[in-house]
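User: I've been trying to design a sequence by hand for this structure and keep getting stuck. Would you show me what you'd pick, starting by listing the structure so we're on the same page?

Assistant: Good idea, let's start from the same input. This is the structure you sent:
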């Protein structure tokens, strides 16, 4: 999170050719990794074969910090990300007196439970939520703040050491830490102000261990803020500053690191104002999460990068198009938003006497907008394709291979009058001659407000 010091401041199938070629993907800007919402303060968590990223959420009209909830995204290949939606808000805490202020949180797994540590600015403290699933729902097991030490109780991070001892760190402009108990919702001993706060530390600590080295990454220098790091032989320091993981450039302004290892590679997450700058030169607190591969040197130090790469990290795995794929799964998109609604369908809710379904879908679909899904494995070919849509004014989805104007797989016309909450599944056979791995583009054509798009699936 940017330093609080400056707080004021879319069936008609048309197969025109046989496709059995290797993917030659169009290069597009691959940052930030989430485009339908403004996101900040990434907190990645690896569980089984999935990376979950919990983020803060800057509202579309934010001038300063306007943050009401925490969002969740997930991926199994590090390039295609699926938006899950809101997992928690400040309303989860009965003791919090405000709605705004869902600042940088972190999720940790232990003994089959998932803990989300959430700061509330203004000296309110740090709370903790718990659930049995990374998707929630989260509940407050304490009924009050876990930490209420000073006005600087922000940006918590948690390390569980090899011996089972858990530590929580937080703070601006100093680093504080405390030993958490095994229940992860209480602590023992005194709150300690780290006497060797490393050079250029601002806030946003992230602590982890690798090969007997302890690492403390953080928003470094101000302002702008990059991501710096320090190392230690102990979880409690002393910390020795080692340099910058991501340089402090005006593009980054504020920052907040999140660092994980997944499928044999290491990754650093942060945030920038790149998405905002596509539409305005003015500065608002509307940030977007970035991510890239991170490389260690033989001695354990970390290689520097000046900024997030355009191409992004390599894909680690492929996407299966024969499973239902949510339309909000994408490697890149332009012009789109998402909406969450609870609707009268699905399983019958006896308590409420109605059919209820939760649905997150693409909205704000206009002519020329598109989504890109990378590394889709058609194997020996597909026989049909389905899409779930709800018309507004109607339009068309062009499904293309490998680039936005690439070979046409199918052209899907979506007609009908607008009926809010009424969804149709359209299915038409397609050629089986598209084989192997390709990037897939869903390009939208029409006038404006074309339709809503929920999911797609090849058969």
């Amino acid at each position: 999170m940017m330093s609080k010091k400056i707080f004021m401041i879319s069936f008609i199938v048309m197969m025109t050719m046989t496709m059995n070629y290797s993917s030659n993907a169009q290069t597009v800007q691959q940052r930030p990794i989430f485009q339908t919402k403004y996101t900040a303060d990434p907190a990645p968590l690896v569980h089984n074969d999935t990376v979950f990223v919990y983020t803060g959420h800057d509202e579309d009209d934010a001038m300063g910090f306007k943050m009401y909830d925490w969002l969740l995204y997930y991926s199994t290949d590090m390039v295609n990300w699926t938006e899950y939606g809101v997992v928690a808000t400040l309303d989860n805490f009965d003791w919090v007196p405000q709605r705004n202020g869902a600042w940088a949180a972190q999720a940790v797994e232990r003994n089959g439970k998932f803990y989300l540590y959430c700061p509330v600015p203004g000296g309110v403290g740090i709370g903790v939520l718990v659930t049995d699933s990374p998707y929630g729902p989260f509940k407050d097991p304490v009924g009050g703040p876990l930490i209420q030490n000073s006005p600087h109780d922000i940006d918590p991070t948690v390390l569980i050491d090899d011996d089972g001892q858990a530590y929580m760190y937080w703070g601006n402009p100093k680093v504080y830490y405390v030993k958490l108990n095994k229940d992860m919702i209480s602590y023992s001993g005194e709150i300690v102000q780290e006497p060797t706060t490393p050079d250029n530390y601002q806030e946003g600590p992230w602590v982890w261990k690798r090969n007997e080295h302890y690492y403390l990454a953080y928003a470094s220098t101000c302002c702008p803020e990059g991501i710096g790091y320090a190392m230690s032989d102990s979880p409690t320091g002393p910390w020795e500053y080692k340099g910058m993981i991501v340089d402090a450039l005006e593009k980054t302004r504020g920052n907040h690191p999140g660092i994980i290892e997944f499928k044999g590679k290491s990754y650093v997450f942060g945030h920038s104002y790149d998405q905002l700058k596509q539409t305005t030169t003015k500065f608002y607190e509307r940030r977007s999460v970035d991510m890239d591969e991170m490389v260690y040197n033989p001695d354990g130090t970390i290689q520097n990068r000046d900024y997030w790469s355009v191409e992004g990290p390599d894909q680690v795995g492929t996407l299966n198009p024969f499973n239902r794929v949510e339309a909000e799964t994408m490697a890149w998109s332009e012009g789109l938003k998402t909406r969450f609604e609870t609707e009268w369908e699905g399983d019958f809710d006896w308590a409420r006497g109605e059919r209820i379904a939760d649905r997150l879908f693409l909205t704000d679909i206009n002519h020329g907008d598109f989504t890109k899904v990378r590394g889709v494995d058609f194997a020996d070919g597909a026989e049909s394709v389905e899409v779930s849509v709800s018309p507004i004014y109607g339009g068309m989805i062009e499904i293309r291979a490998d680039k936005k104007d690439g070979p046409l797989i199918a052209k899907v016309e979506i007609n009908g009058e607008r009926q809010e909450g009424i969804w149709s599944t359209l299915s038409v056979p397609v050629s089986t001659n598209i084989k192997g791995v390709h990037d897939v583009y869903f390009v939208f054509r029409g006038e404006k407000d074309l339709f809503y798009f929920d999911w797609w699936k090849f058969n």
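That's my pick for every position. To get oriented when you compare it with your attempt: The chain is about 0% helix and 45% strand. The mean pLDDT is 90.
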